């Protein structure tokens, strides 16, 4: 075998010296950056605490707030993108709640110590969480009842938003229902949609059917959202979006509508999927329905269209979906939805439960879930593909879907989410249970940082290469680290809990991150390996007696000789 020629004398030494000089030059610069960030964090905390004191004594009036904003305006960069980031930063700071410094975060976390398997149980799987919000929109004026139902914060916010426009929706602990109501009337109203993007788009799309204007307000996440693509689409649907705060791209906004919708509309590729779903759920109420077209549909858009078709058909609405070639279209006919008693399983939660045989170390677990599993539809198909790539065997047995551990995947499996962001945290949890694998490169920087955070905690190696994340598990994990971790969202909180099945002792800072989406998730987690069949639904004996029905509008009573009421 020929040997590589030796480098010139002094070459290796010179290269080493250059490397040393480079490291030596970077170190002071890094230390300076770290010192600056430390000051910034301290100032942010100080500002947040001071703002809280002001609000406790009456808050800022509009003049004061404009005065504070003018300080930021003077510092805005000239470029549009840079200015947008500064505006977003200002709105985030205005909504930041100061943390109680007396709380010891190292002791106040939620210890994740699930009992050992193998797991062998059958559960009644919750119906689609997004689908329930869609049914609330479709049945806002209808009379119906769905029991059992997972009543989470997002569904409650959707119910409240539609009731502000005259809807007749209400909920109990394990039930969503409608008592029937007259037609909705959004115009000339101010509707608060909370922090849920889907709730906002469901309401907005429904408001387009009427001429007039409506104001939408919401929480800090929607205040800092970028609604640019939605604003570009609305003129094609006879509407216009007006930002109430100059320079802002998020809520509050005023939607002006002519009430004259086209037969069809071309949707941009970059339109958020919640907006697409919202428009399709409103289409049955448009006088002539609506056809949405896309010239180059992504896998994520195709999944959304298939999911919308599933929901609309379940409500008796005529739908025609054409996905032949690169272009696609979906035509929704006008009609009165008939709300079904139930929906298929939630694809993301079901995927997490079906992944347990791979995540549980014994590899002898068997999970069976009761309900409809349309495995070839949109997100369900993507979840099915992800699980099989990780070595989970899925089979349909009557009205159940069953998961067991199959042979370990060969080589370096690619755990793809098919464009479904809700599946990405689970794909990372599955990667943590395999020697080596690759993941889709997440679209958001938040997910990228979260991957590195969790990898550092549990001892994984991550590198980005050729459009994927390569994850390897060296097996030398440090089990002494128990500092509470703050999850990015509910799906990351649940994925972290699943990682703890193999790596017990992890600590989650805020368990309510998961319960906001799935109220009884920890009831399930803490009763492993043998949870009850209906663990995700509150038993009737524990259910509250209170019914959250819409409040009846009070009549205005005038007493002779009295002046107008204030």
Rough outline: globular
- Work out the helicity level: 25-40%
The number of helical segments is: 18
Rg, nearest Å = 27 Å
As a percent range, the share of strand residues is: 15-25%
Task: Indicate the multimeric state.
Answer: single chain
- The total beta strand count reads 21
The major β-sheet equals: 4 strands, mixed
Distance between the termini: 97 Å
Low-confidence stretches: 1-5, 7-16, 541-546, 551-566
| Largest sheet strand order | 2-14-16-15
Structural class: alpha+beta
Mean pLDDT: 87
Task: Describe the protein.
The protein is of the alpha+beta class and 566 residues long. It has a four-stranded mixed β-sheet. Strands 6-7-9-8 form a four-stranded mixed β-sheet. A hairpin with a 2-residue loop joins strand 19 and strand 20. The relative contact order is 0.11.
Describe what is shown at a glance.
The chain is of the alpha+beta class and 566 residues long. The protein has 18 helices and 21 strands.
List the helices and strands and how they pair.
Elements lengths: L10 H46 L5 H14 L4 H16 L14 E3 L7 E5 L4 H10 L4 E4 L6 H11 L5 E4 L2 E5 L10 E3 L4 H11 L4 E6 L2 H4 L4 H6 L5 E5 L9 E5 L6 E3 L6 H10 L7 E5 L4 H16 L4 E4 L5 E5 L14 H8 L1 H4 L6 E5 L7 H12 L2 E6 L2 E6 L8 E2 L8 H9 L3 E5 L4 H14 L2 E5 L2 E5 L17 H13 L3 E3 L3 H4 L5 H6 L40
Parallel strand pairs: 2-14, 6-7, 10-11, 17-18
Antiparallel strand pairs: 1-21, 3-5, 4-5, 7-9, 8-9, 11-13, 12-13, 14-16, 15-16, 18-20, 19-20
């Amino acid at each position: 075998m020929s040997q590589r020629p030796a480098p010139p004398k002094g070459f290796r030494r010179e290269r080493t010296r250059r490397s040393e000089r480079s490291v030596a030059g970077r170190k002071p610069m890094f230390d300076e950056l770290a010192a600056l960030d430390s000051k910034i964090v301290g100032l942010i905390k100080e500002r947040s605490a001071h703002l809280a004191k002001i609000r406790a004594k009456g808050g800022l009036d509009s003049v004061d707030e404009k005065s504070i904003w003018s300080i930021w305006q003077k510092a805005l960069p000239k470029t549009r993108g840079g200015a947008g980031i500064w505006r977003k930063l200002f709105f985030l700071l205005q909504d930041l709640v100061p943390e109680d410094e007396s709380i010891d975060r190292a002791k106040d976390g939620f210890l994740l110590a699930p009992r050992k398997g193998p797991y062998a149980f059958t559960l009644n799987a919750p119906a689609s969480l997004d689908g329930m919000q869609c049914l609330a929109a479709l049945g806002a004026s209808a009379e119906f009842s769905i029991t059992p139902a997972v009543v989470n914060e997002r569904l409650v916010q959707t119910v409240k938003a539609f009731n502000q426009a005259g809807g007749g929706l209400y909920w109990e602990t394990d039930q969503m229902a409608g008592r029937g109501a007259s037609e909705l009337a959004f115009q000339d109203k101010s509707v608060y949609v909370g922090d849920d993007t889907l709730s906002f788009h469901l309401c907005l799309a429904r408001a387009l059917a009427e001429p007039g204007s409506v104001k939408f307000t919401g929480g800090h996440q929607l205040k800092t959202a970028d609604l640019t693509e939605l604003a570009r689409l609305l003129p094609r649907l006879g509407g216009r979006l007006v930002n109430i705060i100059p320079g802002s791209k998020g809520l509050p906004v005023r939607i002006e509508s002519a009430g004259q919708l086209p037969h069809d509309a071309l949707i941009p590729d970059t339109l958020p999927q919640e907006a697409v779903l919202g428009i399709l759920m409103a289409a049955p109420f448009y006088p002539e329905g609506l056809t949405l077209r896309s010239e180059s549909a992504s896998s994520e858009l195709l999944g959304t269209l298939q999911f919308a078709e599933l929901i609309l058909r379940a409500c008796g609405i005529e739908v025609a979906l054409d996905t032949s070639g690169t272009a696609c279209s979906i035509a929704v006919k006008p009609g009165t939805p008939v709300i079904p008693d139930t929906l298929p399983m939630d694809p993301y939660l079901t995927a997490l439960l079906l992944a347990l045989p791979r995540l549980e170390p014994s590899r002898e677990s068997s999970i069976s879930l009761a309900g409809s599993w349309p495995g070839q539809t949109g997100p369900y198909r993507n979840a099915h593909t992800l699980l099989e790539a990780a070595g989970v065997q899925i089979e349909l047995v009557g009205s159940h879907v069953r998961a067991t551990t199959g042979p370990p995947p060969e080589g370096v499996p690619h755990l793809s989410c098919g464009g479904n962001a809700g599946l990405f945290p689970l794909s990372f949890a599955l990667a943590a249970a395999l020697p080596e694998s690759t993941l889709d490169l997440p679209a958001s920087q938040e997910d990228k940082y979260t991957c590195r955070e969790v990898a550092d905690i549990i001892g994984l190696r991550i590198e980005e290469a050729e459009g994927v994340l390569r994850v390897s598990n060296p097996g030398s994990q440090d089990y002494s680290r128990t500092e509470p971790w703050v999850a990015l969202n509910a799906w990351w909180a649940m994925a972290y809990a699943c990682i703890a099945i193999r790596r017990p002792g992890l600590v989650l800072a805020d368990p309510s991150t998961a319960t906001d989406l799935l109220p009884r998730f920890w009831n399930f987690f803490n009763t492993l390996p043998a949870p009850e069949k209906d663990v995700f639904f509150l038993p009737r004996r524990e259910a509250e007696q209170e019914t959250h029905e819409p409040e009846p509008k009070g009549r205005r009573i005038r007493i002779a000789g009295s002046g107008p009421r204030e």
